[in-house]
């Protein structure tokens, strides 16, 4: 049965790969982006997850097109990398507001309809950086680590309503965000990955599809790495 799915930040990279994979499996997918530009085959809602009114609008669009959201993938995220000694407070708070508080906003909007349905899947896209840390990314790492604590708390809150809450923690993947790194930095990161390569966005999307599917009905509060072994043991 087709479900209504909402993927935040679904217009490119990992978010778009997730949206396309779920749509190909038969789900009815709405994506959010700050631009609101059309994406073939997907319903699009213009949304900045830093704004509660925008989040409400995105859910209104998804609900009008496809019904109550049964699968939420909180993927929207930004980076503003800088060493802590040089990092502005705005750079810290804006990353937290988008990556962590933005995920809170969309999860909060999703849960009441899911509770009425007595079913649902919430999946947060974190990062191996939230587990290992990374120099120059204190803001990003804090936001991604925070998703894990939030997900596990929600898993305890919502389990009795047959709502699962899980986290996917990608490592170094080929996306626009990582494409901004220098070649030397890319080589250094890949050298530290046991599998010796980057991930594809579709490999991350495959794990999200599993968590959203019937075979993951008894998995909640889990953190699943897709990192080529980079975060092994964390």
Count of helical stretches: 7
What is the CATH topology?
Rossmann fold
| Secondary structure category | alpha/beta
Please tell me how large the radius of gyration is.
17 Å
Overall number of domains = 1
The fraction of residues in strands falls at 15-25%
CATH architecture: 3-Layer(aba) Sandwich
Low-confidence stretches: none
Mean pLDDT, to the nearest integer, reads: 95
Name of the top-level CATH class: Alpha Beta
Q: CATH H level: which superfamily?
A: NAD(P)-binding Rossmann-like Domain
Q: Given the C-alpha coordinates, what overall shape results?
A: globular
Number of strands: 7
Largest sheet descriptor: 7 strands, parallel
What is the element layout, followed by pairings?
Blueprint: E1 4-7, H1 13-24, E2 28-33, E3 43-46, H2 52-66, E4 69-74, H3 89-117, E5 120-125, H4 129-132, H5 138-158, E6 163-170, H6 183-191, H7 201-212, E7 223-226
Parallel strand pairs: 1-2, 1-4, 2-3, 4-5, 5-6, 6-7
Helix pairs in contact: 1-7, 2-3, 3-5
